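Hey team,

Filing this mostly as a record. A colleague (T.K.) asked me to run one chain through the structure pipeline before their review meeting, and I want the input and output archived in the tracker in case anyone asks later how it was produced. No errors, nothing strange. Just documentation.

Input sequence:
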Amino acid sequence: MRGRSRVALFPLLLALSGCGQSEDNPFLGAGASSAPAAGAEIVFVSSAWSTDAAAGREVYAIRSDGGGLQRLTSFNSGRLTDVVEASFGVERGKVILRRTQDRNGDGKLDANDGVGLFVLDLARGAESELLAANWRVESVDWSPNGAFVLHTAVSPASGLEDLFVSEPNGANREALTQTLTSRERRSRTDPAGTVAIYERIEGTAPAQIYFYLSSATQLPLTTGGTPGDLLAGTPYRVGSDADPDFSSQSDAIAFRRLTSTAGGTGHWDLMQFSLQTEQVTPIVTGPRYRGAPDWGPKGIVYVELDPTTTQPSLVLIQPDGTGRTVLATFPAGTKLDYPRWLP
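Output structure:
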C-alpha cells in the first residue's frame, strides 16, 4: 500500500475528509434532478418512469409508509442511461451513482459500455466522474459519515472483482484486496466506518460472506447453503450467500441466500448472521426472488418478485420476520433494485 498499512486506512480516510480536496471533474450534465423530499426515507433505482422493457433505471425516493413516491433523476431524457445503484453519505443533496450509458451510440446497453462511478449534486443537476466506466464497477457504498467511498470493481490485474476505497472525490484510491483467483463483491461498511463486509467467490464454489478488518485479516462469516446449480447469467450457484449489510447497531448482518435457480432470477431467502452468537437464522424464506437487503432504522427493505404476477414490489420487514409491509408494487417488467435507507 505504498508505505502505509491498510489496517489504518479507514481511520485515515476519516481524517482526510476534513482536509482540502481537489476540484471535481468537469460537470457531465445529469439533466433535471431534485433532492429527496423532507419526509423521504428510502431510495431505490427503477425503470418505473417508462413502459419500455429496455428503459434504463432512474433514482426514486419514498417514505417508509409507502407514500411520497418521488423521481430524483432524469438521465434518460437524453442518451440511454441506466442508474444501477445509488448510495448517499451524510448529505441528502448529494449521491454517488453506479451507472452506465450508451457510450457507443448503438441504442443498447451492454458490457462494452462499462459501469462507472459518479457523484451527483441533486439540487444543481450537476454530475462529475469518480471512476471511469472501463473499471466495470460492481458495487458502491458511501460511508455513513461521508468520509470515503467503498466499492468493488474489476481489477485489470486479474480480470476479477476486488475491493477498493477512495475519498469522496475519487482521490487516493487504493485496493484493499488484490487476489488473483477470488472475486470480492458487494461490499458495505459498518455505521462507524471502521470495518467492512463483502461477498467472496472462490472458483466455482458458492459465494460466502466475509469480514474485512485489514489486508491481512479477512474472515469468513458464513459457509453458504448446500451447493447446487449455477444461476444463468450470474456468478452465483445455489447455496451462495450474497449482498450483506450491517444492522444499525453493527451487531448483526442481513444477507440473501440462493436456494433455487427457478424462474431465471432464482429463489432467494433473507438471512441474518449474529456477530454475537455467530449463528445464522432465516428472516424470510420461500420460493420467491428477493433482492439485496438494506437494514435501516425501521427494519429491512428489499425488492421481491411475485412469481404469479411477475410484478416487483418494495417490501419492508422486521429483523425477526414480522411486520411485512409492501411499500409499492410496479407493473410486470419494471426494473426495481437496490433500495437504501436515506441518511
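Quick notes for T.K.: The helical segments are 9-16. The first strand starts at residue 42 and ends at 46.
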